[in-house]
Amino acid sequence: MVELAPGIALNLYLLGALGMAVGLIAGFSGVSGGYMLTPILMVMGMPAPLAVGSSVALMSANNLIGVIRHRRMGHLDLKMGLITAAGTMGGAEIGVRILHGLQGTEGRVADIVVLGVLILTLVLVGGSMLREVIRSSRTLGEDGQSAADEGEVHTAACDFLQGLTIFPHIRFTKSKLRISAWFVLAVGMGIGVLSGFLGIGGGFMLCPALIYLIGQPSTMAVGTNLLGLFVGLAFSTFRHGMLGNVELGVALSMLVATGAGTFIGAKGTSHVKGLAVRYVLAASVVCAIFGPVCTLLYFLSGAGAWDTAAKILTIALMIVPVSAVVTLLIMARRRVRGLEVAPWAARLMANGAQH
Fold first, then answer.
1. How far is CA 324 from its chain centroid?
2. What are the backbone dihedrals phi and psi of residue 50, each rounded to the nearest 5 degrees, phi first?
3. CA 78, CA 76: separation in Å to the nearest integer?
4. Which of 7-11, 88-92, 103-107, 272-276 has the lowest mean pLDDT?
5. Which residues contact 14 (CB under 8 A, 6 or more apart)?
6. Which of 269, 266, 268, 272 is nearest to 350 (CA)?
7. What would the pLDDT profile of 133-160 be if each residue is shown by its tens digit?
8. What's the predicted TM-score (pTM) here?
C-alpha cells in the first residue's frame, strides 16, 4: 500500500494487475487506455487532479511503446499522425487549464465534474461503438470482411469531409485518402481537450474518428492515433507536472505492467481483422462505465456501499475485454500454426496472418 495523503492509500499490487489488463486491451485496440486508467485510479481513491495527471503520465510512456510496435508492423500513417499530434497538443493545454480552474473550488467539485463528464463521454461513445460493431457484424462480406477492414468506409460524414476541398487538401498516400488537414487537426484538438481535462488519451474516440470521419482503414488508424495521442499526452504530462498533479510513484509502479500488457496486446492486431479490434474496444468502453457511476453515487450520497460496489465492478468487468483479447490471441496463434480454430474466430482472423 502507498499512502498519498491521510485516508488515501492505494494497493500497488492491485493497480499493477489492473494496469497490465489495461495495457493488454490498449495494445490490442490501439488506444491509450486512459478511459480505463483514470476511472480505476479514482475508484481506488485518488482525487481527480492526481488521477488525471498520473494517468496521462503513465499513458504517454505506454503510448510510445505502442507507437514503436505499430510502426514496425506498418500500421502508421506518419503524415496524418503528425497533423493529429499538433491538434492534440493544443487541445491538451485547454483541458489542463479547465481542470486547474476546478481545483480551486471547495469539496469534491472537481471529482464530481470529472466523473460526470467522463461517464457521459463513455456512455455516448460506448453506445455508438456498440451499435456500429453489431451492424458491421450483420453486414460482413462472404469472406468475413467488413468495409472498414478493407478501407472502404463511406459514412455520410466521411464522404462529406473528403469532398470539401479546403486548403491544404492533402493526400495521405499510406491511408489511400485525400482530405483537408484542418479536419484532421480539429479531430486531434477535440481529443486533446479531453486528454488534458479527463486524463483520457482519447484513443477510444480518436481511432473511431479516424475511421468514420476521416475514412482511414481500421488497422492503419490503430497506429496513427497512437502517435497523435503520444504527443498530446506527453504535453499534458508536462503541464500537469508543473501543477503538481502527477503521482510518480503510482505511475512508475504501473508502467512496467501496462507496458508488458501493451506489448503482448499489440502482437494480436496484425492477426485479426478490424472488426475484432472494434469488438474489444466497444466492450472495454461499455465495461468501464459502471465503476465510475458507482463512485459518483458515492461522492453524492456518502454511502460506503457505492464505494465498495465501484471497486468490485471495476475489477470484475475488466475480465470481459481481457478474456476477449486473450481468446483472440490464442485463436490467432493456433491459426498461424495451422491448427483448427472455432468458426466464429476464423471469421475475425486476418487473411494471410504471419508471425
1. 16
2. -70, -40
3. 6
4. 7-11
5. 44, 315
6. 272
7. 888 777 655 455 555 555 455 678 888 8
8. 0.80
Asked whether residue 218 is assigned to any structural domain, the reply reads yes
Residue 173, all three cell numbers: 498516400
Q: Which range marks the domain in which residue 216 is found?
A: 2-346
Query: Which DSSP string corresponds to 160-182?
Result: HHHH--PSSEEEETTTTEEEEHH
Instruction: Report the number of distinct structural domains present in the chain.
Output: 1
Q: Which residue's entry shows cell 468502453? A: 285
Query: What are the start-end ranges of the H helices in the chain?
Result: 12-29, 34-43, 48-72, 78-103, 109-138, 147-150, 156-163, 181-198, 203-209, 218-242, 248-266, 274-287, 290-301, 304-336, 343-346
Peptide bond into 168 cis (omega under 30): yes
Measured CA to CA, the distance from residue 222 to residue 28 in angstroms comes to 9
Side chain identity at residue 149, one-letter code: D
pLDDT, tens digit, 9 for 90 and up, residues 167-218 = 898 989 888 889 999 999 999 999 899 889 998 877 778 887 888 889 888 7
In a domain, 353, yes or no: no
Q: Residue 352 domain-assigned? A: no
7 CB contacts (<8 Å, ≥6 apart)? Answer: none
- Specify if 355 maps to a domain: no
